């Protein structure tokens, strides 16, 4: 498909999916997120030649929340390499993203880097490397975008930190098993700030393009991560990227995705493109209903699926 | 890669991987399996043009065990279509394949068709459609192969049934939630027989080729399943096909796989080929160590991965 | 208190508690139990001198269900002695009576003899000692009563066995851990028959009187069990006798009790008496609402409590 | 038994039990506790007439740890009355004292006041009533003893607070369910200080004497708590007072007990006396081996058991 037919496609998808923006509920576990206008819907595609296509509210920044785990993981993998896997597993959890049950059974080693426990371990790794890990994640994103105008929403970060008891429980729990090097409060400060980064669909699609290109930014420069690491990140997105609906997403969409409670969903088509959709209302698993519908429709219309034989 | 370079590659892989046949232990939970010669190693590839390449012990039949779940699932999906998903989930379980814990939490609905509970539900579905479900699975395999010389090993089936208390517990447990239509004994008879089907690497690669071809057998005839169903099966293999090591397999191998405690591992390269490796000794998760090593090496050497951008 | 004031007291309690017979629901997990007239309420006391006092429907037989676990445990302890505790624990479970979760964690050793798993192990022990364990339990009760007119309700036993999938799951599960010597079907036949014994409040109070007398039937003969065993049975009743409401019963009633889903509740006042109340409607834990209210009132009015200093 | 025969009995028990002081290991989860001389063994009895008998190291203060939960609960019950049970359950947990698993299932309501979660809720209740809850507990103990020389060991309190990640996890977890009114840090400060109160066997036996006397201090004054509350505390001690060995203690000892990882065990004989034994080395459940042996022997020799008919 060329750029103009892709543009037409996502325009159509946004138009057809608007009706689903009514379903579900905006995340309300922190007051700052609950204030987002719920009727937004955006979609963007970044293709390997660097083109970025936009539809609907694709340029409006929103709170990326758990999508930040993807950038933090990539940064940690760059720094630590394979030894990172001694601190966090790579298996789907079979339990909600914020559960402590498996953590108790597995003595403080989180199942994967995308459950909250795993993301806190990743932040802990970054705390040992950087004085301000959230700035390191932000600057990493700046580097990926070639721009420095992406920022942390301080109000969201503060609100998030004030309502971080569940994550504090997880952090203290891991520390009680000797699995957290820094103080929980330090890790939580950085983690809440990182989740409060605001980005648009267009920026998220562009910033994650290296995952579609075996770790190399297609527009040049040195690799972001090596090909093996990029593939592993895609594999983790596929098996663990959509909270406790990862299996359902794999069946419905067939692409590596990472979702966030801000309503964003990022998806990767290896060898082709990266895409992102956003709409604030969530289902019971914490995934955006309209954004998931938009990406599912995109996959169905193009036939793009890592599990399929046909090439669009 | 052409056929001769693929042949050279799998010959090399089998030679290089022989040394790993010492690691792990043959499944001993049923006496009949414990008698298999442990030093076997075979590998086979079926490409879309129908070519089947063989290396090592690729033509020696072995007990396919849980790989049979793949054929049973496909047959059930053909018959039931999408309504099948009302009876079984599509999420990874985060627990060992024979755990009852999640089943209790989720009131008798198994997490996916590849944990034992889910496979028993699939057999139950087949019990409602066929008088002898294990014959139906066998004949389905005959149809895929275009041959009728694949058979159930009656000794293994009997031994398996005599040691099926854990699966009997699961079956009765689901029935106590009203989630099993047939009597547990009926379901267990069929399930144990189906697991005792004996096939070689070459036959397994050939029989699963439709999964690499969007559900259509490349050598003609009507589709085995539609493209969407084939992709979903691949997605389920990726997220749930390797017991509680599915995430690790996705990271290491990057292909949909289904493993069995007989030591077989089947893998699908969508759009390209299906492959199978076999060696009896297992790791703690119940996956063959040497067969996994062979397939991992194959993926590394060819660069084939559903998560990668490059094309070999 | 003398017999006539005790008689007046239980007459009053039955009259005052009738209004609570409306609350809750009759057990409906087996059809035969669902047919019991729900408005019944009886109460009986057996004192150490052998007097039996009756109020309301105290002489109407009902299905004793889990109260039979008490007699089976006593019989098994008589035969096995302390070695019985190698097969079953003595700790409260913190989970519903038919849960399999702890059984998985604890590798097939039930937490205590009153959860279903533990009761099935007790029946398995009896299966190894008696050809017809349910007859052995019945004859043990006949011996305690000095009469042989107590019987198994064959209709209830049959209905129970037809709806025993949950218990079959538990039995097969324990056998998969090597913790059940007999075939699950054999154990379940005996267990379901034992639960279907029909007795009245008056008979239950009389038959359990040895528990109030350090194991010795106050009207003579050899001890039923030794004092230590009798005390342990009382301790198990206190900590585990009321399903997942044992702690609440200990706080509200303060006496060792054993409840059954037939609506019976047996209570022991060590050194004084044994008592039983019955009414079919149950709360969510499976305990009779009106029978619990009657016994709670009895304890409050008399001041009898194993946790209290005063003597009535 | 009169005082001199009781004195002779506990002297004998201490002498005979010394040999068991070698078994087990001193609690080492906080450095300050690990320094306690491990060979200590003391025992004391307080009878209803106010006599206190001492044997061995009965007057040496030790860290009362979880035994403090008993005094905190009593104080909270005095202040809150029955409404306290809206915030904490009364059921045994079936899981280790510091588990988070049940807390997740039960949405932040602890199973009972003696698991750590429940004790933290009790401290939270006291935080809402007192500026310095640990001082309130201490002064409550002073009142029970009629002396003010019992104190918090500041070194132990500090060490405990520095190693309180597990309890911090529990506190934040409950707060995430909206079940903790104060800040976790505030609750933890008070809780760690309360656990660090140092008392001797003699003082603990004397201070808990009201539990043997239906809530009234036998030497006069107003009741500590009413009879119903005192009985409920005894019931909770019996069902939940010895961590995950409560059932075993009920069978072996047959008295309400409360244990602490400092090695102390307090036991109540309703209507008779309160007693305490202490020895630092613990079993895997966190209960003192020698102190449990001493109390078990006391119960066996005297025949005192709340489950028994005989009177010593």
UniProtKB/TrEMBL annotation, chains A, B, C, D:
Keyword Acetylation: yes
UniProt record similarity statement: Belongs to the glutaminase family.
GO molecular function: glutaminase activity
The organism of origin for this protein: Tahibacter amnicola
Subunit structure: Homotetramer.
Enzyme class: hydrolase
Binding site for substrate: 66, 116, 160, 167, 191, 243, 261
Pfam families in the cross-refs: Glutaminase
Keywords assigned: Acetylation, Hydrolase
EC number, UniProt record: 3.5.1.2
Catalytic activities: L-glutamine + H2O = L-glutamate + NH4(+)
Protein name: Glutaminase
InterPro entries in the cross-refs: Beta-lactam/transpept-like, Glutaminase
């Amino acid at each position: 498909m060329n750029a103009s037919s892709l543009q037409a496609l996502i325009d159509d998808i946004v138009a057809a999916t608007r009706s689903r923006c009514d379903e579900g509920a905006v995340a309300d576990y922190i007051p700052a997120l609950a204030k987002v206008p719920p009727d937004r819907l955006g979609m963007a595609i970044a293709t390997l030649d660097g083109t970025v296509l936009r539809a609907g509210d694709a340029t409006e920044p929103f709170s990326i929340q758990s999508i930040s785990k993807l950038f933090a993981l990539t940064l940690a993998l760059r720094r630590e390499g394979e030894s990172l896997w001694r601190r966090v597993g790579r298996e789907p959890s079979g339990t909600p993203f914020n559960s402590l049950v498996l953590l108790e059974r597995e003595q403080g080693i989180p199942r994967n880097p995308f459950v909250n426990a795993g993301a806190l371990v990743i932040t802990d790794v970054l705390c040992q490397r950087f004085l301000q890990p959230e700035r390191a994640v932000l600057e990493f994103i700046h580097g990926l975008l070639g721009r420095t105008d992406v920022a942390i929403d301080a109000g969201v970060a503060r609100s998030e930190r004030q309502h971080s008891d569940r994550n504090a429980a997880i952090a203290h729990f891991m520390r009680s098993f000797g699995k957290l090097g820094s103080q929980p409060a330090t890790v939580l400060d950085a983690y809440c700030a990182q989740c409060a980064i605001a980005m648009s669909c267009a920026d998220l699609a562009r910033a994650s393009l290296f995952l579609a290109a075996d770790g190399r930014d297609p527009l040049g420069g040195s690799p972001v991560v090596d090909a093996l690491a990029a593939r592993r990140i895609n594999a983790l997105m596929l098996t663990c990227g959509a909270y406790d609906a990862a299996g359902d997403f794999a069946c419905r969409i067939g692409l590596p995705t990472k979702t966030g409670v801000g309503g964003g969903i990022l998806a990767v088509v290896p060898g082709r493109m990266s895409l992102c959709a956003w709409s604030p209302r969530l289902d019971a698993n914490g995934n955006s209903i309209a954004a998931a519908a938009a990406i599912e429709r995109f996959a169905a219309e193009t036939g793009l699926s890592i599990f399929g034989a046909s090439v669009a």
